[in-house]
Amino acid sequence: MRIDKLLSNMGVGSRKEVKALMKKKKVFINGVAVKSPNTQVNPEKDQVICDGKVIKYQKYGYWMLHKPSGYLSATYDHHQRTVIDLLDEKIQIFEPFPVGRLDKDTEGLLLLTNDGQLAHKLLSPKNHIEKTYIAKVDQTLTSTDVEQLEQGVDIGEGVLTQPATVKVMSDEEPTVIQLTITEGKFHQVKRMFHAVDKKVTYLKRMSMGGLVLDELLTRGAYRELTQKEIEWLQEL
C-alpha cells in the first residue's frame, strides 16, 4: 500500500496534506524519513510515525448508530438525507455502509461497517439472527393476534413469516409491543401487523443478535463497537 493512501485513509489528511508533511520530514517508516508519497508500506509489519504519532492501520471499522427518523439506510441519495450524512468525515473515509436497512421513518439500532464479508453473514437467513423491535400500533392486540404473529402470518405474495416472539409491554400501554423476529424481509414488521389488521405508528429496533442499542446514544449519535461486540460479530 502507498504511504500517502494509508495516511489519508487513517484520517491524517488529504494526499496533498500528507505530501506536505513528508516535505517537512514528519513521516517515518521504521525510523526512516519518507520522501516520496508512493513509497510502499506493509500496514501489518511496518511501523509508521506521522508528526510524532504512531499510526495504526485499521482496515475495517464497525459503528453502532442510533438511526433517527427521516434518514435513508443508504450510502448516497440525490434528494434525501442518508445515514452516512450523520457521520464525521474521518469515519466516512472508511466508506462504511449500513448492514441491512431500516425504513426512513424507523429509528434505532443500525450497524455501519466496510466489512462486506461480515455484513453478508449478518444478513444471511441461514444464521437466524434475532432482531428485536419496539412497535406502537393503532389498536390493542387480541390474544388471537398474538398467537397468529407468534406462529407466522401471511404478509402477502404467499410469504409466511417464521415464528416470532410477541410481548405486550404493559397493561398501561397495551399498544406498545416488543416483537422479535429472525428474518429481514422488506417492511416485514409493518406487514406482519398489517396481517392482523393493525397499523404501526412508531417503530424502533432495539437489538440485533449480540448488539444492543446503547441507551447512552441519542438519536443521530454513534460510537465504535466495543471489542466484545466485535468478537460476537466475528464468531458468526
Radius of gyration: 23 Å
Main pleated sheet:
9 strands, mixed
Q: How many structurally independent domains?
A: 3
Tell me the total number of β-strands. Answer: 13
CATH first level of the largest domain: Alpha Beta
Protein name: Pseudouridine synthase
GO molecular function: RNA binding; rRNA pseudouridine synthase activity
Pfam family, one: S4
EC number: 5.4.99.-
Written description of the protein model:
The chain has 236 residues and is an alpha+beta fold. It has helices at residues 3-9, 15-23, 89-92, 116-123, 143-151, 188-195, 227-234; strands spanning 27-29, 32-33, 48-50, 53-55, 62-67, 97-98, 107-113, 131-137, 165-168, 176-181, 200-208, 211-212, 222-224. The protein starts with a helix and ends with a helix. The strands form 2 sheets. Strands 5, 6, 7, 8, 9, 10, 11, 12 and 13 form a 9-stranded mixed β-sheet that branches. Strands 2-1-3-4 form a 4-stranded antiparallel β-sheet. It has 3 domains: 3-55, Structural Genomics Hypothetical 15.5 Kd Protein In mrcA-pckA Intergenic Region, Chain A, CATH 3.10.290.10; 62-125 and 214-234, 2-Layer Sandwich (Alpha-Beta Plaits), CATH 3.30.70; 130-208, 2-Layer Sandwich (Alpha-Beta Plaits). InterPro entries: PsdUridine_s_RsuA/RluB/E/F_cat, PsdUridine_synth_cat_dom_sf, PsdUridine_synth_RsuA/RluA, PsdUridine_synth_RsuA/RluB/E/F, PsdUridine_synth_RsuA/RluB_CS, RsuA_PseudoU_synthase, S4_RNA-bd, S4_RNA-bd_sf. GO terms for molecular function: RNA binding; rRNA pseudouridine synthase activity. It holds the Pfam family S4. It comes from Gracilibacillus halophilus YIM-C55.5.
